[in-house]
Amino acid sequence: MKEQQQSLLLSSSARFPPPQGVRLSYGTAGFRADAGLLQSTVYRVGILAALRSLKMDSSVIGLMITASHNKESDNGVKIADPSGGMLSQHWEPFADALANAPSPQHLLHLIIEFVEKENIPLEGVRPAQILLGRDTRPSGESLLEAAKQGISSILGAVAIDMGIVTTPQLHWMVRARNKGVKASELDYFEQLSSSFRCLMDLIPSGSTFNEVDNKLVVDGANGVGGEKLEVLKKMLDGLAIEVRNSGKDGGVLNEGVGADYVQKEKVVPHGFSSQDVGIRCASLDGDADRLVYFSVPSESSSKIDLVDGDKILSLFAVFIKEQLNILNKEGHTDVNSDYQPRLGVIQTAYANGASTDYLRKLGLEVLFTPTGVKYLHEKAAEYDIGIYFEANGHGTIVFSESFLCWLESRNNELSSIVKGSEQQKAALRLLAVSKLINQAVGDALSGLLLVEVILQHMGWSIHRWTELYRDLPSRQLKVKVVDRTAVVTANAETVAVRPPGIQEAINAETAKHPQGRSFIRPSGTEDVIRVYAEASTQEAADSLANSVAKLVDQFLGFSSS
Ligand SMILES: CC(=O)N[C@H]1[C@@H](OP(=O)(O)O)O[C@H](CO)[C@@H](O)[C@@H]1O
Ligand SMILES: [Mg+2]
User: Fold this and answer.
1) Domains 3-164 and 310-466 share a fold
2) What is the number of the ligand 1 atom nearest to the C-alpha of 390?
3) CATH code given to domain 200-306
4) Nearest to 288 by CA among 473, 136, 73
5) pLDDT digit string, tens, across residues 92-117
6) Which CATH superfamily is domain 474-556 in?
7) With a 6 A CB cut-off, is 244 part of the ligand 1 pocket?
8) pLDDT in tens, 240-285
9) How far is the CA of 392 from the centre of ligand 1 (A)?
10) How far apart are CA 67 and CA 73, in angstroms?
């Protein structure tokens, strides 16, 4: 490494000393902590982003400053790879080591070692390029500055600041730039609104969707999503959206609002009341990568009927399967129609058991991965069409390049035989879905538009949608323990292989409850063990969760910290 590069790294890192006595980890979704602790981490992630870009032939890398659904005083940082997906897991240990290096000398040493090991061309012809984005958190501005300082401590690296954006917008922009297509925020809105319009135009004429169903009220979590939806909605026809909790009316980010709150607490968010009984409502999280729907069933309580990620997944799966069936209808003997695209559905252990049953009964292939979209996305990408969702509302649909090519040519072929046939419309719908739904990462705004147009297509109210299947009652608990890494899981987190004996004890508790299912795992974003239980009644699910939480306590010891 050149002398000039070394001294630049030493002098700039001296301005960003790491916080004392805290160990940070890249975790399920990047670094997250109290914003006051993050200057040094974000600066160092800026360095990492520049190195990652150089390693990837100077492709554009994304750096997003957000702590999603965490409280407003927290913040965080995560990296988007050139495909628009999450940072390669192979680089996570380096991210951890960088964040925790105690001094500028240690930091420099780590970088030199890593650059050599990974063969990173520091003196290449093209500079590193990084797209920066942040959510609405007040701490975002100074953290963004720290990221810029990190980036500019790699000679020649260029930072492009996209300002306040949703996490999925930044991922979308990274992907688009690397594909060499238009990649501004306006391009994003135009792609979403035009593919939405295309799907609306292809709705069968007999659809029974009525005017009352036309209204949607969205809880913007007092974050960036509500603000962006206000812009997007002006570009849409055939859908009336009212945004509440857009952050302009004095509400606090994620406080009593947002997708995480609504999904976990199952009560109405601030700004919603008994006056909304029966109306279709949706909730975004703080950086607009999660989406859940809900309705208020009665005037007398604050409880909601939740339509979670599993049910959004089910709606998408029903629609996609229907279009594939139309497309593959018999009666055509041409060679191209023999191709059978592979459709896969990916869930985690948190998926409600009733949703998995429902999807399997539809004849779909359902697979499980550990928690965290990096795992789900990777699995989904193995299919021609992979649909994945976490129960909390993070998910998307990914289409393989080869399937999209086939679909394009199939569409051309069909249009030359009988333009406007049902088969051709199905091809057009699938192509439009691939443009509407964010291919890079789960995106609440694009997911919301897809839900809306599918409901109109099917002629379904939110109640008809909810009734696809009935959720099994479930309960989630958190248990604080001395060392959460003492729990080691296998089989997509459904079995605890360590500490020894705990799984047998969990099995014994589970067996006491009809339709019982329970598992434990260490959280990747909080210092806790998470307990999940479901059973045939709410009382049984609660009792199972409590017994398993007690087991965790017995096996792993309670920490009062
Ligand atoms: C049970 C649950 O909701 N877990 C969430 C949560 O991860 P944990 O590792 O469980 O803390 O945050 C992740 C990042 O947002 C998200 O991917 C995941 O689904
Ligand atoms: Mg989020």
Assistant:
1) yes
2) 19
3) 3.40.120
4) 136
5) 999 999 999 999 999 999 999 999 99
6) Alpha-D-phosphohexomutase, C-terminal domain (3.30.310.50)
7) no
8) 999 999 988 889 999 999 999 999 999 999 999 989 999 999 999 9
9) 8
10) 9
Give the H or E element holding residue 396: strand 395-399
> CA-CA distance, 167 to 135, in Å (whole number)?
8
Considering only CA atoms, which of 527, 516, 524 is closest in space to residue 489? 524
Q: Which helix (H) or strand (E) holds 459?
A: none
Q: Which residues are catalytic?
A: 68
523 in contact with ligand 1, CB cutoff 6 A = yes
- 18 cis-preceded (ω within 30 degrees of 0): no
Ligand closest to the CA atom of residue 373: 1
Specify the CATH number of the domain 310-466: 3.40.120
pLDDT for residue 149: 98
Q: Quick check: 530 and 556 in contact, CB under 8 A?
A: no
Pocket test for ligand 1, best of 25, 26, 28 (most atoms within 8 A of CB): 28
Cα gap 61→59, rounded to integer Å? 6
CA–centroid distance, residue 29 to ligand 1 (Å): 8
Query: Does the interface predicted TM-score (ipTM) exceed 0.90?
Result: yes
Sign of the C-alpha dihedral computed for residues 169, 175, 176 and 178 taken in this order: positive
Q: Which atom of ligand 1 is nearest to the CA of 290?
A: 15
391 is in an annotated binding site: yes
Asked whether residue 305 is marked as a ligand-binding residue, the answer is no
CB burial of residue 511 (10 Å; 0-12, 13-18, 19+):
exposed
Find out whether 176 and 83 touch, Cβ atoms under 8 Å.
no
The whole-model pTM stands at 0.95
Say which residue the tokens 């969990």 belong to: 506
Residue 286's closest CA among 189, 188, 392? Answer: 392
Ligand 1 atom 1, closest CA: 350
Distance 285 CA to ligand 2 centre (A): 6
Q: What ligand 1 atom has the least distance to the C-alpha of 264?
A: 3
525 is in an annotated binding site: yes
- Token reading at 559: 């920490």
Domain at 3-164, CATH from 3.40.50.2300, 3.40.120.10, 3.10.20.90, 3.50.50.60: 3.40.120.10
Q: Where are the domains of the chain?
A: 3-164, 200-306, 310-466, 474-556
Q: Is the CB of 525 inside a 6 Å radius of any atom of ligand 1? A: yes
Asked if 271 and 219 count as a contact pair (C-beta separation under 8 A), the reply is yes
